[in-house]
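testing teh design pipeline on a random one, pls ignore if ur not involved
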C-alpha cells in the first residue's frame, strides 16, 4: 500500500509543478519517465541458474527551468528510481536532485546529487545495453551527493567538471574531483577525462569514442572505451561495442576485458514497437579466470518511455 501512496504522491507533486508552470509563462516544467520490466535467467558463480521477473531501473523525473534575466536561466531536476518490487518498503530511491544557474555562453553551475561526468562521458560510449555490458569500465561512481558541477560548451568542445565536498569523511576540502573534455562533430564523438578519489588516493583515467559508418552508407556505430584505475595495483579495462540499425530493429554486440581478470561477451537486439514502447532480448557470457566458473545470462523485457 505504501508503494502506491508514494508513487501517487510523486505524480501529485509533478502535477502541481506542471500547474504552476502553466500559470507562470516564464517557468517550464517537463515530466518524464521510464517503466522497464524484465525476465532474466542468470547463472551464479556456482553454476546454478535462476529465473526471475523484476524491475529494470524504472524511473520518473521532473525538469524545471525559469528565466531570471536576459541570458541567465535557473533550472532544477528531480529524478527518482521507481522500485516496482517495493524492496525494503522503499519504492522510491533518489537518483538525481540538483539546482543550478545557466549563464549561456558562460556555462552552467549546479549543486546537489548529480551524475559523474567521467562515467557518463567516458564510459558512456559503450553503454548501449539495457541489462548487461560496461562491466570492464573502471570508474568511481555513477551518481553521488554533495557535489558541485560546472559545464560549458565552446563550439565542438564541451567541458564538464565536478567536485564532491563531503565533510562526513573526516577529511577537509574536496573529496572527489572530476573533469572531462568531449569533442563532437557529425559522425564522431571523442571524450577523455580524469577522476580523483582524494580520500582513498585512487585516480581514474579514461578515453573513449563513438563513430558511425553513415559516411559509407551503413547504419552502424562503433564505441570504444579505455579506462585505468591507478591504485596500489593498477587495473585497466577495455570495452568495445558495435550496433547495427535497420527500420525499427537494432542489433548490438560487445566485448569487455579487465586486465588479468574476467572478459565479457555481450549481444542483444531491441525492437521499437511504438514511439514510446520497445522490447529487448540480451545475452552475456562471462569468461572468469582461475577456478571460478564461467557464467551465461539471458534477459528479455519491455520498456515504455514518456
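output:
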Amino acid at each position: 500500500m505504501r508503494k502506491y501512496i508514494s508513487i501517487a504522491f510523486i505524480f501529485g507533486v509533478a502535477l502541481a509543478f506542471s500547474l504552476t508552470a502553466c500559470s507562470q509563462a516564464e517557468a517550464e516544467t517537463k515530466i518524464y519517465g521510464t517503466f522497464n520490466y524484465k525476465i532474466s535467467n542468470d547463472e551464479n558463480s556456482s553454476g546454478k541458474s535462476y529465473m526471475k521477473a523484476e524491475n529494470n531501473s524504472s524511473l520518473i523525473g521532473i525538469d524545471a527551468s525559469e528565466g531570471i534575466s536576459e541570458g541567465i536561466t535557473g533550472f532544477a531536476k528531480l529524478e527518482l528510481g521507481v522500485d516496482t518490487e517495493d524492496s525494503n518498503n522503499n519504492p522510491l530511491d533518489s537518483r538525481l536532485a540538483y539546482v543550478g544557474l545557466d549563464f549561456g555562453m558562460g556555462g552552467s553551475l549546479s549543486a546537489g546529487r548529480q551524475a559523474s561526468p567521467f562515467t557518463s562521458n567516458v564510459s558512456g560510449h559503450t553503454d548501449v545495453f539495457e541489462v548487461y555490458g560496461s562491466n570492464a569500465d573502471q570508474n568511481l561512481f555513477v551518481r553521488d551527493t554533495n557535489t558541485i558541477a560546472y559545464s560549458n560548451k565552446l563550439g565542438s568542445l564541451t567541458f564538464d567538471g565536478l567536485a564532491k565536498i563531503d565533510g562526513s569523511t573526516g577529511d577537509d576540502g574536496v573529496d572527489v574531483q572530476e573533469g572531462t573534455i568531449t569533442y563532437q562533430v557529425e559522425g564522431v564523438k571523442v571524450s577523455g577525462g580524469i577522476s580523483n578519489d582524494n580520500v582513498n588516493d585512487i585516480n581514474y583515467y579514461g578515453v573513449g569514442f563513438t563513430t558511425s559508418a553513415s559516411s559509407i552508407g551503413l547504419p552502424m556505430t562503433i564505441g570504444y572505451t579505455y579506462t585505468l584505475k591507478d591504485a596500489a595495483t593498477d587495473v585497466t579495462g577495455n570495452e568495445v561495442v558495435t550496433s547495427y540499425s535497420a527500420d525499427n530493429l537494432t542489433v548490438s554486440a560487445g566485448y569487455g576485458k579487465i586486465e588479468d581478470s574476467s572478459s565479457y561477451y555481450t549481444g542483444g537486439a531491441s525492437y521499437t514497437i511504438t514511439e514510446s514502447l520497445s522490447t529487448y532480448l540480451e545475452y552475456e557470457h562471462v569468461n572468469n579466470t582461475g577456478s571460478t566458473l564461467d557464467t551465461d545470462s539471458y534477459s528479455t523485457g519491455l520498456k515504455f518511455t514518456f
